[in-house]
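#struct-help
A.M.: can someone run this one for me? Single chain, 581 residues.
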Amino acid sequence: MPTHGPDRRDAGPSLEQILGLIAPGMLDVVVAPRGTGVAVADVVLHDPGEERDDGTWAASGLILLAVGVEVASPEALDVLRGADRAGAAAVVMRRGDRGPRAALVEAAGLGRTALLTRRPGQGWTEVLGRLRTALAHSAPAGAGGTAAGLRLGDLSGLANTVADLVGGAITIEDPQSRVLAYSRLDHEPDPMRRLTILGQEVPRWRVVELRESGFFQRLWSTDGVVRLPADARYAERLAIAVRHGSEVLGSLWAAADGRPLAEDAAAALRTAARAAVPHLSHHQTWGRAAARAREGAVHALLKGDVRAAPEAGIATDRPYAVVVAEAYDRRGAGSGGAHDGQEAGVGAGETYGGLGPAADEASGAAGQRVLDVLALQAAAYRPGCVTARSGRLLYVLVPAGDGETDPARPLLATARSVPRSVVLAGAGPVADGLSGLPASRETAELVVRVLRERAARRPRGEVVSAVAAHGEVVPETTVLRLLDRVEPLWGSLSGPVHAMVEHDRAHGSAYGASVAAYLDASCDMGTAARRLHVHPNTLRYRLRRARELFGVDPADPAVRLLADIGLRLAARRPPPAPPLG
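D.P.: on it. Structure tokens below:
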């Protein structure tokens, strides 16, 4: 007959400690027959099929996450009894709408395993991550004494603590070599540390250099400290991977800070790596989840849900203006997107949330790095700036001072100066209360659309970053608003301009482009021909044929107005697919 495991009250952190470190409301204790002082050894996902009738399956001291099992389901009672026989400290099931059945509660009270429920809206992956983070943070003092007294997730405090212990400058990085925190600067940093801190990541060329030399392979494949000797360029460095089980959470880097590293620096760094586990695990689970929730709240606020203001980090008593920035990195695949003109216009209803599916799919890591820089610039520009992303777009809520009507102007200037990138950024007006944020957002998006259409008209190699405040492009944004309203009606009409556009689409002719260039040049034949890169006689012939074939005569004021509207709307549509066969 299977027997219960030992009580193990002094063998590790208690269930009470673990539950006290996770987010309130994530788990509920239904029944704890031995109290919550029972010791916890680990947290694992539980597959009921792993249980053995002979009692060989053991879960002594474990918290079991019974994925797929609801407390009201028929199998819940069997899962609880199996966990109890195996000596589990607790079992967690999904709560559901009805809650636990009376028979389940009664059985839990007669056993030794605590019954917990996971509330709706909480994912199993997040529950597992948070419980393991709490378990690591509650480990015996010998494993994490280096960081004793630090608030869980205080990476800056951890970096400073480790710097004192190691006797060097510390950088904490994630597995992608992005900087999570760094210690205070007691001495002038060497050039590499300066570049890494300013860029918030190890420079790409340095990452390639370390990868090709085999350094990263050694770092990620060992539990020990890896040494990078000093050379003519940079000081000596020691690095160690921070692991939670088989998962690499990041790395600690120690650099000589004005003096050689101490003899026991490597041993100190090994101790620090153990102490860093709960903090990096916290960053990975809580920090990222909190950032996602905050970003979702910003999006909700920009769509008009003022209830999201506290979670978004927005002060309800301050006015804000919205800045929208669209980023392309000249070094990456995203560099051509603003040049090609394929997506120069965005139809009504497509403005919020990026450029549409094609552009979002094309957004690569290069463009995202530009958004990283822009978000950092926004955070450094003014306290209280809040950001959120969507595809290639970055939304920034900029707080305004008393009587300030243009709080985003310096930020726009800064956005324009991001090196090796094309940034199109527009600012909306200061919102009159939180309910005015969607209107400010919409105006800022329109400004970016204006800048994008300007970029599409420039030669490919001449596209540069451009920024504008809403008051600088009022005529153009007004035209966009009008076209957005007219577009549904235009599609239901027919006439000479419709016929010309359809002919161009079917036959690949350029009558519409010729008329559009002629109108855009204020009916100046020479200017329009130069913009089209054709001879003026060629343009005259096309305009004459447009009049003969379709009745589109730019000399007629009514036709000229309709042609201008229709051709602007036609430019928004993607080109037709090539014929099959």
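A.M.: thanks! The mean pLDDT is 81.
D.P.: also worth noting: The chain is about 45% helix and 15% strand.
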